Amino acid sequence: LEGEKGQLEVANSEHVAKIENIQVAYKNLEARNKAMEQNERVLEKQIEELREQSSTLDDLNTQLKDKDDALIQLEETLREKKQELEEIQSQSEDVVRQWQDRASELEATTK
Hints:
Layout: H1 2-110
């Protein structure tokens, strides 16, 4: 009977040790789970910040494209105005030459 009692006590203390080990492992898992949940919240916040930054970049890219389009339009208008100015300058030079020719003709006929 004493031998059985001793064996039961040994078995009981082994079970208690196993239960304590399981409890420690469970607490470790709980701590790891809590840390992972906290990391998940941090990552979710970072993802939201990245989405906001991406949206801001999209808006900036749209604004940049609009400004590029406006610049292209202004460059085209500038080319057209430059061409018009060159035509007016050429016409003005022609008119000046015609007046000079007429003035020369008038001088020649009056002499």
